């Protein structure tokens, strides 16, 4: 696990993403060697962040450098700076120069969280195809049960020429349907899209108040029904704490209450230790589509620390150490 981030890079996020697509999923040493000989300016910026993440893993966390892999790396657009380009006769032309934010994620994979997709690409260029196929599968599931399935997440396993899909929901009856009609229809749609044999199972979430995705979806539905956002957030947080959570944090952003100027509202109850790796923290992002625009909702739920024996077993079974998301130490970039 490592932490690295670079802000206000003088390159557009689109150009950075083109290079990131080439190294995503590679081992860190292989990615550094690949980036070192690329002529694109984007490669140099990504090389710096990746090198800093690897150094932090070695020095701060005593990780094995050869076991580090890039699980997720993203670039987001940040501020746009106004600049001037010189012209003839002492004139200058104004232009906008975009900047970007590079983030290398995932923080708790292999420690207190597991992967949502479990498979290995059989050929060198198969990784990209399978990632795109997983995205299409999740889109089909979301579209089939839009607004009624209360789906938290979709886990995908591959093996033996078969795709195993585990749907985690608080309403398994809706997923299955009468006499299994809806789940059979879903299986047919996915098989037609992928061309592979598919097996689907619906797993019930016993306590939906402790699931960040379901809490975020509930908040989004309330905001779309024009319930005051403060009351909706306060009631959702209270239900989560009453269900046994040790802490919850909710961030709502957008034109709250129909205000002309968008703002961000943050509320927290209990404690949410985001940088304690043994902490079991569920995180999810949802969106509410209101008449005033889109309102973003982020939810963090802390349900307690992992037992020591379970944490050691998970770390021992993990063959690689993922690069993580977080704020880099001040003495490193």
Polypeptide structure, described:
This is Large ribosomal subunit protein uL22c. One of its GO terms (cellular component) is cytosolic small ribosomal subunit. Residues 311-333 are annotated as: Disordered. Residues 137-206 form the KH type-2 domain. The protein has 333 residues and is α/β, with parallel strands linked by helices. The chain folds into three domains: 5-110 and 318-322, Ribosomal Protein L22, Chain A, CATH 3.90.470.10; 117-204, K homology (KH) domain (GMP Synthetase, Chain A, domain 3), CATH 3.30.300; 208-306, Ribosomal protein S3 C-terminal domain. The protein is 34% helix and 32% strand. It has helices spanning 13-23, 28-36, 41-59, 126-144, 172-176, 181-194, 212-224, 229-242, 308-317, and strands spanning 5-9, 68-69, 72-86, 92-105, 117-118, 151-159, 162-169, 197-204, 247-254, 263-270, 279-290, 293-305, 321-322. The strands form four sheets. It has a four-stranded mixed β-sheet. Strands 10-9-12-11 form a four-stranded antiparallel β-sheet, with helices on one face. It has a three-stranded antiparallel β-sheet with strand order 1-4-3. Strand 11 (279-290) and strand 12 form a beta hairpin. Helix 2 packs antiparallel against helix 3 (41-59), helix 4 (126-144) runs antiparallel to helix 6 (181-194) and helix 7 (212-224) runs antiparallel to helix 8. It is globular, with a radius of gyration of 22 Å. Mean pLDDT is 82; it is low at 311-333.
């Amino acid at each position: 696990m490592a932490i690295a981030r670079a802000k206000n890079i003088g390159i557009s996020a689109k150009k950075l993403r083109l290079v990131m697509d080439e190294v995503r999923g590679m081992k860190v040493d292989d990615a550094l060697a690949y980036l070192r000989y690329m002529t694109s300016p984007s490669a140099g910026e990504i090389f710096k962040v990746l090198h800093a993440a690897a150094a932090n893993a070695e020095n701060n966390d005593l990780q094995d450098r050869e076991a580090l892999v890039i699980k997720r790396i993203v670039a987001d657009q940040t501020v746009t700076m106004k600049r001037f380009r010189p012209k003839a006769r002492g004139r200058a032309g104004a232009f906008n120069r975009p900047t970007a934010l590079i983030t290398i994620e995932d923080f708790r994979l292999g420690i207190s969280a597991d992967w949502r997709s479990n498979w290995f690409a059989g050929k060198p260029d198969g990784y990209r195809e399978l990632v795109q196929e997983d995205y299409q599968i999740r889109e089909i599931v979301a579209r089939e049960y839009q607004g009624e399935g209360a789906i938290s997440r979709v886990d995908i396993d591959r093996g033996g020429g078969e795709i195993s899909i585990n749907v985690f929901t608080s309403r398994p009856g809706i997923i299955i349907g009468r006499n299994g009609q809806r789940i059979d229809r879903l299986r047919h749609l996915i098989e037609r899209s992928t061309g592979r044999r598919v097996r689907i199972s619906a797993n019930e979430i016993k306590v939906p108040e402790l699931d960040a995705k379901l809490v975020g979806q509930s908040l989004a539905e309330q905001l779309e029904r024009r319930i005051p956002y403060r009351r909706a957030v306060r009631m959702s947080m209270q239900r989560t704490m009453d269900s046994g959570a040790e802490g919850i944090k909710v961030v709502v952003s957008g034109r709250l209450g129909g205000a002309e100027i968008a703002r961000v509202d943050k509320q927290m109850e209990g404690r949410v230790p985001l940088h304690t790796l043994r902490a079991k923290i569920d995180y999810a992002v949802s969106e509410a589509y209101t008449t005033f625009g889109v309102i973003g909702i982020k939810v963090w739920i802390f349900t307690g620390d992992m037992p020591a024996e379970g944490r050691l077993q998970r770390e021992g079974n993990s063959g690689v150490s993922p690069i993580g998301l977080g704020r880099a130490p001040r003495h490193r970039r």
